[in-house]
Amino acid sequence: MKIIDAHQHFWDPSRGDYSWMPQDSKILNRKYDLEDLTKDSKSIELYKTVLVQAAATNAETEYMLNIAESSDLISGVVGWINFEDPNQLEQLKNFTKNPKFVGVRPMIQDIPDKNWVLNKDFDIIFKTIIDLDLCFDALGFPIHLENFYIIASKYTSLRFIIDHLMKPKICNNNQEEFIQWKKGMYKLSKLENVYCKFSGMVTEASEKWTDQDLKPYVDEILNIFTDKKIMWGSDWPVCNLRTNYLGWYNTATNLTEKLSLAEKENIFYNNAKSFYKLKI
Ligand SMILES: [Zn+2]
């Protein structure tokens, strides 16, 4: 089965703008490039990827677009603009000159104000994203579920994708938290423009995680978003904190083994292609 990885990163810590990166992490704090990805994914049929921003700067988006220009494997780039600066609308338009630029992702998980996304001044930005036919990657935690619902239901033609199932704290194994997450995800799943990335789960699980720890969450999204609105992503190299590229891929295929081939093709290929409008 041909695969599109809807969410991977490259970075080079010497660029100096990855403020979230723990200096002492041997796994994260090193360069990851195309050669590493090719090596780590060599036993699966990885056809294309979407490269996602990992720094809150325009420079990092340019860095990613440069890599994408010289690589057939990278079919889309999700970049970053400063929503708080109205001058960045021009920057956003400039990025779209590169056909591989497909969307933006503010780093909402790192912003202390949980209501940041509701800022009324962002109206023009959301409208411009829609006008430019771009996507919005929603990176947050379960505390952001309600706000994401407000935005996604206000801008019904905004192609809106939830990153990493909203990063539920799988390691907490807390039933009440699970029910809250499930309720918020259910509401979002009912909006036609909202999709869900099947990614980033292992880093929310405990160090001794098993497939069974992830299963209730995966079953839930399969049930509510269905194979029509879910897309697989590796979140490599972040996934290396708990497993490796192949380990997460194998877990993802185990947890979707009951699906038909057509349903699997939607999750591992078709949905990423159509959602991001990848030119492949
Ligand atoms: Zn990521």
Structure description:
- The model has no long low-confidence stretch (mean pLDDT about 100).
- Helix 5 runs parallel beside helix 6 and helix 6 packs parallel to helix 7.
- This protein has a single domain, classed as Metal-dependent hydrolases (TIM Barrel), CATH 3.20.20.140.
- An 8-stranded parallel sheet has the order 1-2-3-4-5-6-7-8.
- With about 280 residues, it is an alpha/beta fold.
- The protein is globular, with a radius of gyration of 17 Å.
- The chain is built from 9 helices and 8 strands.
- The site of zinc ion (ZN) has 5 residues, from loops.
Number of strands: 8
CATH class: Alpha Beta
Class by SSE composition: alpha/beta
Largest sheet: 8 strands, parallel
Helix-strand topology string:
EHEHEHEHEHEHEHEHH
Shape: globular
Residue runs with pLDDT of under 50 for 5 or more positions: none
Average pLDDT metric: 98
**Assigned CATH superfamily:** Metal-dependent hydrolases
Q: Span from first to last CA?
A: 16 Å
Q: Into how many domains do the coordinates divide?
A: 1
* Count of DSSP-assigned helices: 9
Beta fraction: 5-15%
Bound chemical compounds: zinc ion
Question: SSE layout and pairings?
Answer:
Layout: E1 3-8, H1 34-40, E2 46-52, H2 58-69, E3 74-79, H3 88-95, E4 101-104, H4 123-131, E5 135-138, H5 145-154, E6 159-162, H6 175-189, E7 194-198, H7 211-224, E8 230-232, H8 245-255, H9 261-275
Parallel strand pairs: 1-2, 2-3, 3-4, 4-5, 5-6, 6-7, 7-8
Helix pairs in contact: 5-6, 6-7
Bound molecules: zinc ion.
